[in-house]
Amino acid sequence: MQDILLWVYVIMLGILTGGALFERLVLVSVWASSPPDSVRNWNSDPRNALDPPRRFFKFVTPPIILLMFVMFYIAFKSENPFRCWLLTSAILTLTVIVSTLVYFAPNMHVLSLRRGEGLDSEAIVKKTRLWVALQYIRLLVLILGWISALQAFRLQG
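Above: the chain sequence. Below: its structure as C-alpha cells.
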C-alpha cells in the first residue's frame, strides 16, 4: 500500500507542479505583465472572466494535502535515505501549501480576481511585483519537493 500511495503522491505533485508552471508562464505573464494597467484590465468582462487557477488548485490541492500527511507518516516509520528524501518532499510541499493559503491565494484574489480594487496604482505595482518575485521562490520550492519525492520513489524498497 505504501508503494501505491507514494506513486500517487509523486503523480499528484507532478500535476501540481505542472499547473503551477502553467500559471506562472501563461496566466501571470498576462495579468502581471505591466501593472497597474494589466491588473486592472485582466478579466474586465465578467461574462468572459477566466479563473482557471482557482478551479484547478481547488481540485488538486486537497488530495495533495492528504497525501503529504500520509508521506510524513511513512517517512517517520522508514529508514534513511528514503526517509530523508520523503521527509524533505513533505516539508517542502507543506511550505508551498501554507504559503499559498496564507499569502499567495489571498493576494491573487485581490490582484487577479478583483483587479486591484481598492488599491492605488503604486500599491498595485508593488503588490504585483512582490507576488511575482515570491512566486518564483514558491515554484522553486515546489519543484524541489517534487524532485525529492521522485528520489524517494527511486529509493523505495
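The radius of gyration is 18 Å.
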